[in-house]
Amino acid sequence: MPRRRQPTARQERLGAELRKLREAAGLKAREAAALIGSDSAQMSQMEAGTAGVSEERLRSLAAHYSCEDEELIEALTVMATDRTRGWWEEYRGKLPTPFLDIAELEHHATYRLDLEFLNIPGLLQTEDYARGVFSYRVPELPRSEIELRVQHRVKRREVIEGPTPIPYEAVIHEAALRIRVGDRAAMRAQLTRALELSAADHLTVRVIPFDLDGFGGAWATMMYAGGAVPKLDTVVRDAGANGTAFVDSASQLGAFRTLFRKIEAVSLEPERSRDFIHRLAKEL
User: Fold this and answer.
1) Nearest CA to 182 among 225, 143, 134, 111?
2) Distances in Å between the alpha carbon of 209 and those of 50, 121, 129, 213?
3) Which of 116, 216, 227, 268 has the fewest CB atoms in 10 Å of its CB?
4) What are the Cα distances from residue 87, in Å, to 84, 101, 152, 245, 248?
5) Which residues have C-beta within 8 Å of that of residue 113, sequence separation ≥ 6?
6) Structural contact between residues 6 and 97, judged by C-beta atoms closer than 8 angstroms
7) Are 60 and 50 in contact (CB under 8 A)?
């Protein structure tokens, strides 16, 4: 298979999982390569995501690694053989790569969780709200790129609004609900949209009010995407000047799952959250 110049986050994740299996088996790259008639250079490329791996080779490697997790092997096989060119590909070369990687991640996700403290989660944003967020980038973005980012964000909503929506839960701090990204009318429309979406059976919105005692978790903003199996879950976090970070180590994923459930447990119940948002919208 030809070498890729810029692998996607999904391709890199497949390679990383192959590396984890090899390391768990106690084999060096050259030893694993010899088992499938390859060399260490190609093995390194497969594990970096810059080279593809066939289903036959993947299953052969899994057997040599004594991997007995059939669900994981099947999920990795799907990742290796998937040739989907989703709608996000039309933005390749026009928007930063993480925008495309997040859209692809959501497309394949089995569920989504969000924790947000200063902004309404992207999947719930109206066009005006998203435009306001992107307009505050420094250095300032050209109007054409702002509109591309808004269009991309709107298309991402298909995972919760399309014909086969995935389960989605957002826990939002009151601060995000009160900060006016845009004027009163735009913010009222944004809160109304969040209310309308939260009425769907597959979608839950919870609120963390200002008056909650003893809350120290405001640093924990995250986007959590469920994989085909739990080992393939992914957390996406803003890494500041370093861009977007995709987290996939087992220990970190476990910690983020625990953190989400801890914060979820102290947030308002869905019905009380809806009443809370409705009251804020009426105040605008």
Assistant:
1) 134
2) 46, 16, 21, 9
3) 216
4) 10, 12, 9, 22, 25
5) 168, 169, 170, 171, 222, 223, 224, 226, 260
6) yes
7) no
User: Can you tell me which residue has the tokens 């996000």?
Assistant: 88
Asked whether the predicted pLDDT for residue 242 surpasses 70, the reply is: no
| Residue type at 265 in one-letter notation | A
Nearest Cα neighbor of 166 from 202, 205, 199, 196 is 202
Distances (CA, A) of 85 to 40, 82, 233: 30, 9, 21
Query: Nearest CA to 146 among 159, 164, 134?
Result: 134
Instruction: Summarize pLDDT for 125-162 with one digit per residue, the tens.
Output: 999 999 999 999 888 999 999 999 999 999 999 999 99
pLDDT at position 239: 66
Sheet holding 244-247, edge to edge: 203-208, 168-173, 111-116, 222-226, 234-238, 244-247
List all residues 6 or more positions away from 52 whose beta carbon is below 8 Å from its beta carbon.
Answer: 1, 4, 11, 46, 80
pLDDT tens digits, one per residue of 14-54: 999 999 999 999 999 999 999 999 999 999 999 999 999 99
Residue appearing with tokens 């009426």: 282
Strand ranges, E, within 26-119: 111-116
Backbone conformation region of residue 166, classed left if phi is above 0, alpha if psi is from -120 to 50, else beta: beta
* Structural contact between residues 92 and 100, judged by C-beta atoms closer than 8 angstroms: yes
Cα-based distances in Å from 184 to 127, 198, 283: 15, 21, 10
Task: Tell whether pTM > 0.70.
Answer: yes
